[in-house]
Amino acid sequence: MQYYLIAFPGLRCGDSCGLRWTDVDLKNATAAIRWQITQIGPETFENKPKSEAGEASISPDASTVTVLRAHKARQNIERLAAGDA
For residues 72 and 9, which has the higher predicted lDDT (pLDDT)? Predict the structure, then answer.
């Protein structure tokens, strides 16, 4: 999924990894970039983008929205299958 978000809408790696479903509106085809995941050595960090300009909104194209919908459906199926685990 992250590779698709990097290749097509052009997100940076950390931004695509930090994207949360609460920041994605599939109906209106928008996504707010509010978080990024970075890794320094063995440590992983979740931070806000480095600058206010980094906190942006994107408008994914129709094929990206389709891919996101399919990914969300797969996640929901996996979540149900996992139960309380």
Answer: 72
- Who has greater pLDDT, 55 or 18? 18
What beta strand segments (E) does 4-73 contain?
24-25, 30-32, 36-40, 43-47, 57-58
Domain that holds residue 29: 2-82
- Domains of the chain: total: 1
CA dist., res. 52 & res. 26, Å (int): 24
What is the phi/psi pair of residue 55, to 5°? -85, 100
pTM of the model: 0.80
Look at residues 45, 56, 52, 44 and name the one whose alpha carbon lies nearest to residue 12.
56
